[in-house]
Amino acid sequence: MQETRRGVLSALADGPMSGPELADDLGVSRAAIWKHVEALREAGFEIDSDDGGYRLVSVPEFGAEAVEFCLEAPFSVEYHDSIASTNDRARELADAGATDVVVLADEQTGGRGRLDRRWASPSGGIWFSVVCRPALPPAHVPIYTLAAAVATAEALRSVGVDAGIKWPNDVLSGEGRKLVGILTEMEGEADRVSWVVVGIGINANVDAGAVPRTATTLRAEVGDVERAALTCDVLDRFDELRADPDSVLPRWRSLSLTLGRRVRVETPVETIVGEAVAVEHPGTLVVQTDTGERRVSAGDCEHLRPA
Amino acid sequence: MQETRRGVLSALADGPMSGPELADDLGVSRAAIWKHVEALREAGFEIDSDDGGYRLVSVPEFGAEAVEFCLEAPFSVEYHDSIASTNDRARELADAGATDVVVLADEQTGGRGRLDRRWASPSGGIWFSVVCRPALPPAHVPIYTLAAAVATAEALRSVGVDAGIKWPNDVLSGEGRKLVGILTEMEGEADRVSWVVVGIGINANVDAGAVPRTATTLRAEVGDVERAALTCDVLDRFDELRADPDSVLPRWRSLSLTLGRRVRVETPVETIVGEAVAVEHPGTLVVQTDTGERRVSAGDCEHLRPA
Q: Among A293, B46, B135, B267, which has the highest number of CB atoms less than 10 A from its own CB?
């Protein structure tokens, strides 16, 4: 069903087509085509019909239907025009037993970053949180955070943004400004999580003046993007990465802005300065210091000028 | 204050003493001694006074006062005669912002073990959960679980039980029967926990018939114990271990029943069979298999007969 509907949409995206042509192309009846077109219209897709056949006039720019429609991955989407925090709502859903649900919003009024830092989330951005229930120990959850960074950086590159990743999960523009924030939260036992919520905030169709000076937006970098399509791309890539965790680190490395750089990493207990030489499962940074190799599993990383 | 009160108690534990003698010994006034004795009586300590001075007749066997009184570590204690689950109550307190609180019960009506397994918790046991807020990434939390196992096994040895540890945190009797269950839960971000709850259940003054066949009780092994004193000993050792995480693994190793044994470890994704050759921070088991060394961070471990 969903497959055929996507086929109709994809055919119409190339230009107007008649009902019989569509039916032939997709191997279904004309009545089925008519039903799918109606369903598309209900989902917010504007489709004209005249003597030349069906013509796709516009697609919804954002929202649950728009994202669910283009999504390959098995997520359901709960959309809010405005919400305090998609992560907070996703945690509620997780506590209630949900899984593979995406909470999506146009605006967050109380967006949070790591360590309770404030995260500006004006209307026009892409703010969403994914609820997952992986069979993982908490120790391996960082691979989910890295996967989210890889999925987002790759999706941004596909719309022309020169995106790269600063360890562990900051997606930056070519000039080193922050485009994306990722906040992973979890609950569980010492050897098995019960849920993981991965929050991803993309400074999308937002004026650069509405985000902090150290950040930038897609509007400022490449102009406005189709948010539903970009959201789908991130989610589909994330779904593919979580299904194949071994693929995360190779893809992370090829997007890394940190490997080979001099870095200062602040951990809860110490500061480590040296060259970032490797990243290892589940996201550990290996830093070559003056006194030897150090492995860091968590911390704030700053890129330094060469010594 | 607490120090002097403990001094009074400790002096009286050696035999009757007059008020002036106590005052001299502890370097405080007779009026202060009188106040401390009154406070002790209020806390459930039975203290007679006659011509020969003060005489300690009995100490409370269990409860918040009894444990808080003997405790060196900075925990406050919330006691329940009966509660569904001390871990659930501790999680509530943790969500509300509490730290260094111990939820203690004589009986749990819905005691839980790992992976939602049922944990029999009849009256007479020692069932408690500790709320902590360490500055740790979730990946390092297993060291807390190992610390709890070390604290408990050492405390049991000090009351004459032949206790050892099966990786990662099962405290067993000499015959390999389970004496203690430990359930660690946490919530937080991928790189920092917001809280950890360590639940410890000791089959203490309980008939062996009231626990599963694979388990045993202190009553069956060495006879009934002073529960408040044992609880304090576990908590004080745990507090010392968490303050010095580097001391956990050496002490764990010297109590280990697993190192040097053939083991089968079931992880969420695979089964590993081989010889347990080492344990590494934060609690990873190193298993020598036919095809090489494997590192396991979580799983169910079974001791096998030598191949």
A: B267
Q: Does A147 touch chain B (CB under 8 A)?
A: no
A136 vs B contacts (CB less than 8 Å): 268
Lowest mean pLDDT segment, chosen from A1-10, A127-136, A179-188, A223-232: A1-10
Last residue of a domain, one of A58, A73, A101: A58
Identity at B38, one-letter amino acid code: E
Is A102:A130 a contact under the CB 8 Å cutoff? yes
Domain endpoint, select from B18, B39, B58? B58
Partner B contacted by A252 (CB < 8 A): no
Structure tokens at A113: 């970053």
Task: Calculate how close chain B gets to A102, using CA atoms only, in Å.
Answer: 18
Residue B45 belongs to domain with CATH number: 1.10.10.10
**B183 and B209 co-located in one domain:** yes
pTM: 0.82
Cα of B224 to nearest chain A Cα, Å: 31
Which residue of chain B is at minimal alpha-carbon distance from A189?
B185
Residue in B266, B159, B166, B148 with CA at minimum distance from that of residue B215: B166
Candidate from A135, A138, A269 with C-beta closest to B139 = A138
Give residue B2's pLDDT band: very low, low, confident or very high (50, 70, 90): low
B213 and B180 in a common domain: yes
Supply the pLDDT for residue B1: 37
- The answer to whether B115 contacts A189, with C-beta atoms less than 8 Å apart, is yes
Distance (Å, rounded) from C-alpha A99 to C-alpha B84?
A: 27
Q: Is the same domain home to B124 and B234?
A: yes
The answer for B 18-47 residues in CB contact with A (under 8 A) is none
Structural domain boundaries enclosing B285: 262-304
